């Protein structure tokens, strides 16, 4: 009997104001998934940076994988026509279409897990089984593997961005997330110096609007 092919899909970098989002897929047959368990793959956030990089290298060598890097300007453009959840479904399906699987395991971005899975099924365009769950990256090794590949690639891209733009201000960029005070300060200082947001910034994020409003308020008061 032919073995079922499974695919796990996850993203890294959904929320940052600076840098891309990376969506990765990892494919395996049912027997190969046992290898992931033996490798002790877990949600990418539960591994150290060094361990994530080691695991990502092994996953890429041992399994079929694919990822898409969604640049900030593309996120901004797509956000004009769709919500962030719809954008994520669109990219998940784009990754998933590369190789047909019998079952797709998705780390649901939507509060409604079933809706996310249903929208993915509509978008992918062929009959298949979809399991869409919150914390799929914790509970399914195939999704843990995808989360590791996505996170390592996102971190690489952010490191390239740091090397490109940090020397312009001589200060750290931070994590790129809106909650990071260093990131917000970096954006503010960049606007003060150059009159615009830094390269690789998601202009459609509320954080940017808020920083600009605060700067305008300070100018007048």
Would you kindly provide a written description of the structure presented here, covering whatever features stand out?
The chain is an alpha/beta fold and 221 residues long. The protein folds into two domains: 5-159, Nucleotidyltransferase, domain 5 (2-Layer Sandwich); 162-220, Ribonuclease hii. Domain 2 (Arc Repressor Mutant, subunit A, Orthogonal Bundle). It is 52% helix and 15% strand. It has nine helices and five strands, in the order E-E-H-H-E-H-H-E-H-E-H-H-H-H. It has helices at residues 33-38, 49-62, 72-79, 84-96, 113-124, 136-139, 141-169, 181-194, 206-220; strands spanning 5-12, 21-29, 64-70, 103-107, 129-133. It has a five-stranded mixed β-sheet, sandwiched between helices. The chain is globular and about 65 Å long.
CATH evolutionary superfamily of the largest domain: Ribonuclease H-like superfamily/Ribonuclease H
Whole-angstrom Rg: 19 Å
**Proportion of residues in β-strands:** 15-25%
Number of strands: 5
Please give the structural blueprint:
Elements: E1 5-12, E2 21-29, H1 33-38, H2 49-62, E3 64-70, H3 72-79, H4 84-96, E4 103-107, H5 113-124, E5 129-133, H6 136-139, H7 141-169, H8 181-194, H9 206-220
Parallel strand pairs: 1-4, 4-5
Antiparallel strand pairs: 1-2, 2-3
Helix pairs in contact: 2-7, 4-5
